[in-house]
Amino acid sequence: MGKEVIKQSIIHSSSRLVKTMGRRQTMMEKYKQQMKAYRKKRGKIDSTPFLPSDGIVYVMNSLNPDKKIKADVLKTRIKNHREVIESLACPECSNAMSWDSKWEAFTCEKHGKKSIYEIVPAK
Ligand SMILES: [Zn+2]
Fold first, then answer.
1. Which of 3, 12, 31, 75 has the most CB atoms within 10 Å of its CB?
2. How close is the Cα of 1 to the center of ligand 1, in Å?
3. Pairwise pLDDT comparison (7 vs 115), residue with the higher score
């Protein structure tokens, strides 16, 4: 990573973020690698968390991408005539998670270790 990039990150981060930046970036890199491979496999382009037509949402913990977990939808909104998930219950601690566009996933920090949940198709 170049010096300029690091400087930019620090400017845009809270003081807490700066302290944990090293760990987060490692995690982010790992996540992005996994997600890149996963997205390529299923040809996903639009990352908007649309609600599936049957209303049943499955997520995948990005650090444990083999396991599919059913998640409870807490809140939705309408965007371009389609229902978009705004809030999802964390499968681990039931905390209301909101969409994190940076991670392109729902994230939870309420049960200790940060978890990143990406929406996956039912089949
Ligand atoms: Zn949680």
1. 31
2. 31
3. 115
